[in-house]
Design a protein that fits this description.
This protein has 198 residues and is an alpha+beta fold. It has 7 helices and 6 strands, in the order H-E-H-E-H-H-H-E-H-H-E-E-E. It has a 6-stranded antiparallel β-sheet.
Length: 198
């Protein structure tokens, strides 16, 4: 879903509504060793909370293709539908996802900066812990996780983040963060969420 088809007409609201009545997201392969290493390090630094991760494939649907190829995710509430999908609820039931989300304010975040953002989360740590192996290792941990998720295809991946406590799993304090990545070539989306409390 990299290149828009400019001959395709914009789907009407009825088509978008019909899209979300079908199962759009299905669970993809689990985290690999580099992502698992990142999650383990985040868990260790956020001792009263922790980190959660899930990866999904999304449907090769013409309606979805129109919006995704144009980076118009907000117009179809793509991220909100991912967060409330049956696939995510089944994979991470501990997230305590509500039936309907309050509005979530997302920030676009560059895929080029993602490894550093994860390294910052490690070094900043949680309420009572932080990464003990130093900044260089934190950066390497973030870089390896990104390489495992999307390699050098930074331009093909959109990343968004929010500090909102959008489910009952979050403690609604300083350490809440969720990142959502959308891989337009592979038709995959992933989510990494983090929380802690004192």
């Amino acid at each position: 879903m990299l290149d828009p088809d400019y001959q395709q007409e914009r789907p009407d609201p009825a088509a978008v509504e019909a899209l979300w009545r079908r199962p759009v997201f299905t669970l993809a392969e689990p985290a690999g060793p580099a992502v698992e290493a990142l999650l383990g390090a985040l868990d260790a630094a956020h001792v009263n909370g922790g980190a959660g991760f899930a990866r999904f494939e999304f449907a090769d649907d013409p309606c979805l293709r129109w919006f995704v190829s144009r980076n118009r995710f907000d117009e179809i509430a793509f991220k909100e539908h991912l967060l409330t999908s049956g696939a995510l609820r089944a994979h991470l039931p501990g997230l305590e996802i509500p039936a309907a989300l309050e509005p979530v304010k997302w920030e676009w975040w560059s895929s080029y900066l993602l490894a550093g953002d994860w390294a910052r989360s490690l070094m900043q740590g949680g309420a009572y812990g932080k990464f003990q192996e130093g900044a260089r290792k934190a950066i390497e941990t973030g870089e390896k996780a990104c390489a495992e998720l999307f390699g050098d295809r930074h331009e093909e991946v959109m990343v968004f983040r929010t500090g909102a406590a959008w489910s009952g799993w979050f403690y609604n304090v300083a350490w809440d963060m969720t990142w959502v990545g959308i891989d337009k070539r592979e038709r995959k989306a992933w989510l990494l969420c983090l929380t802690d409390t004192d």
